[in-house]
Amino acid sequence: METRKQTGTAKREGKKSRGISSAIVIVVALILAESFFYFVLGSGSNFQDGNNANEPLPGNMLGTMFKGGFVVPIILTLLLTVIILSVERFFALGKAKGKGNLINFVYDVKADLRKGNISSAEAHCAKQKGSVAAIVDAGLKKYKEMETQDLAKETKIEEIKAEIEEATALELPSMQQNLAVIATISTLGTLMGLFGTVLGMIKSFAALGTAGAVDSVALSVGISEALVNTATGIATGALAIISYSYFSGKIDNMTYAIDEMGFALTQTYAETH
Question: What does the domain layout of the chain look like in residue ranges?
Answer without folding.
Answer: 20-272
